Description:
- The protein has eight helices and nine strands.
- By secondary structure, it is α/β, with parallel strands linked by helices.
- Strand 7 (130-133), helix 7 (138-149) and strand 8 (154-157) form a beta-alpha-beta unit.
Amino acid sequence: FDVHGNAVTYLGWMIDWGTPITLLGADVDEVQPMQRELVRIGIDRPVAYATGSPSDWTSASVPVSAYPRKTHVDMAAALAADPDLPMLDLRRNSEFDDGYIRGAKHVPLHELRGRLDEVVTWANQQGRPVWLYCGSGFRASAGASVLEAAGVDLIHVDDDFPNAAKAGLPIVTPTHGHRLGATYAD
């Protein structure tokens, strides 16, 4: 991922202050830039770091979890087959206000941990996998990790949001201005 992008910001949103962090990377040259970026949000040093590949960090006694990754084209096909497809939009409020997929529940990634009980309850009521999306797939992968650890059955949409309309997904563009704390029924 782009260490100079938003990864550090999202990490700061997702963890409690003082949480021990271990950095993983292919080599030291991949780990060091992230360590420098962490200093910018007040994390002076990780507890540890490891280099190598995921197979170096796992064993039979430590299970590795995974979840399916799909695109907006896949989600459009799933929505055509199931008009009540459970979808979770993890974009910021301002992005959501610019347009969203009709029927999606909206919980910005930075609110996910604080609303985890609500989201897990909602997801478990769906009885089928919840499709998570964001602006490009990165925040959805972070949210998917949190929700998967909480036992939610999910599908990570690893795709750019502009592709949702191109895939034929129904995009709602609010015309009522800024939300000011409002929630949308659609």
